[in-house]
């Protein structure tokens, strides 16, 4: 929060700002004091905003050519690919954009896990983030249904059927979601409506997310509060804008690589076969970004419990600020947590891998162990660790390690031995 | 506070909120119910299928209410196998006699009761159906034997209109 009162220089600006303080807002955003030690893991917020805007713009254009009808959807997507000027480009950006969006959000989430960004006073930022993540999954799932290929149809069938696990009312809910007795035209039209709506809900939540962020300000790699704004921070513009911009360019190179060189590698060939309610593809797998949760679902042999485990795996994240009992934010100063953090990263990657494999034999066993470990991490390791772990001494300020070298473990240790 | 008598204003508040709640409910329900199957979807209630060309040991799949229905003409061996299974061995105990009134014809929804995929014919550990999605094995009576599916494949309402025609629904 900028502490000074802002007055526009020009008379017109002042006149306008007295009536609608947009310029005050713009000034707050440019002057916004940012910890000067932010590293590149902090650039993913900006990258995510870019992804959302990209999806909205390309999505609006696709919606001008797409026809949400079970008999025409598949052909209309092919029409976009072959007939519409630059249709292929727009569709490939949109389809790969969804993957890029998830890539960025996973990095953003794991950044928060490493640096303890979910801890007090940033719990609300974190929870809004989890809601955004849930909405992203809903948007991507429903978007994937729209081309009405085999994966669209069977993905929709399997995911909507998850609700049938709910005792008593489950079947009724599924029929209600479908608007019929199977996934069919009524399902497609409502999914299109929701797919169109959700990104705008996300946009609204992003505003809240950033608003909540601008109350305490950014966390930072050493995870301590700002002691002296004049020393520890730099204004958002131009410092962070340039850094974010550079990272965004790097990200766009990766994005463009997928769009132009391997536009279908992240999708499934089966989705170029039109939906057929009589035949399920031999291997149905969700998009890569949902695989870890899919693995958790399949690792539980009971239908209801499988669904409960999958949902809890996501919702448990919302309780994270209270499950992690340590007051130290950054993993840099938590030698044990740091190791468990990397085990968790490996665990989630393993879950993603087995989620793509058939659920049998060794894969199933690995999936079960990894699922158990996932919950163990959040429910047992984190609460206990916070109470038992002996953390390293924190630097006195954000500036101190910058002047004295890097804030990593060995420096901190050296410093400690020097003091003694 | 406890001494306070109900006055006209309290009454008006309560009455306004009550009417408001009823009004909100009356608006919300149609918004929810419009998503349920509409009249045209419900109208497609039954299908007649000619099964004269189905040989023993073969299954045909027909579409009913957007869902596949398996119609299998079972062989003598298959019937014997289906009827020899003891109820204790089943996760969802149902006799084959109850599932196939006419033992030669098994008519059931070809929908895996786990998450709705279409199981494959003559596959799996029990010579019946196997669902590739998450690995559910069904026997030759369509009963769940192994895997995550909780119940047997469902038997729809059907009847033989004549010797060669089955009416489903
Ligand atoms: C959160 C943002 C969004 C995400 C993650 C997302 C994701 C997706 C995905 C994964 C697909 C399937 C791509 C394919 O395989 O063909 C898709 C298709 C589609 N989306 Fe989006 N989308 C988003 C925003 C939007 C918006 C705002 C609109 C409309 C205003 C839109 C309109 C469409 C249309 C018309 C299709 C069907 C054409 C096609 O399949 O390429 N999307 N979306
Ligand atoms: S849908 Fe058949 S096993 Fe999951």
Architecture overview:
The complex is a heterodimer of chains A (about 425) and B (about 170). The longest helix of chain A has 30 residues, at about 185-215. The two termini of chain A are about 40 Å apart. Helices cover about 65% and strands about 0% of the residues of chain A. Chain A has about 425 residues and is mostly helical. Chain B has about 170 residues and is α+β, with helices and mostly antiparallel strands. In chain B, about 25% of the residues lie in helices and about 25% in strands. Chain B contains four helices and ten strands. In chain B, the strands form three sheets. A four-stranded antiparallel sheet of chain B has the order 5-6-7-8, with no helix packed on it. A three-stranded antiparallel sheet of chain B has the order 1-10-9, with no helix packed on it. Chains A and B meet through α7, α8 and α13 of A and loops of B. Bound molecules: protoporphyrin IX containing FE and FE2/S2 (inorganic) cluster. FE2/S2 (inorganic) cluster binds near residues 112 and 115 of chain B.
Number of strands of chain B: 10
Helix fraction bin of chain B? 25-40%
Q: Measured on Cα atoms, how large is the radius of gyration of chain B?
A: 25 Å
Distance between the termini of chain B: 63 Å
Q: Can you give the mean pLDDT of chain A? A: 93
Beta-strand percentage of chain A? under 5%
Number of strand segments of chain A: 2
Q: Judging from the principal axes of the Cα atoms, what is the shape of chain B?
A: elongated
Instruction: Please state roughly what percent of the residues of chain B sit in beta strands, choosing from under 5%, 5-15%, 15-25%, 25-35%, 35-45% or over 45%.
Output: 25-35%
Give the chain pair forming the largest contact, with residue counts: A-B, 37 and 27 residues
Main sheet: strand order of chain A = 1-2
Q: How many individual helices of chain B?
A: 4
Q: How can the largest sheet of chain B be summarized? A: 4 strands, antiparallel
**Low-confidence parts of chain B lasting 5 or more residues at pLDDT below 50?**
none
Detail the poorly predicted runs of chain A.
none
Bound molecules: protoporphyrin IX containing FE, FE2/S2 (inorganic) cluster
Please state the structural category of chain A: mainly alpha
Largest sheet of chain A: 2 strands, antiparallel
